Amino acid sequence: xxQADRWKIRPATTRYWEFCDQIRSAGVELPxxxxxxxxxxxxxxxxxxxxxxxxxxxxxxxRPDLDNLLKALADAIYEDDCRIWNYRSISxxxxxxxxxxxxxxxxx
Length: 108
Fold this sequence. Notes:
Structural class: alpha+beta
Radius of gyration: 15 Å
Order of helices and strands: HEHHEE
Largest sheet: 3 strands, mixed
Number of domains: 1
Strand content: 15-25%
């Protein structure tokens, strides 16, 4: 995003702001430390049933980047996300439906 995205309407930024609104309205919480986060990205409908079965739960190794997903999530939850100082694990995998799973594993 750029400074102009605050006033210039583009499809990518519109989707980003809608994502942030969904996260906030759902009351998603992200601990400041010890979170294990898994992003489940939906498989394309165009994939065959065989390919979908084969890829379910497998690592998602294409765009969007993991760091961009994490940044969007943290920005949506925290006004100042510098409070987050530790993650236990972060991953992205293929699934039938989009989902963000957040669990707090032991910690400080």
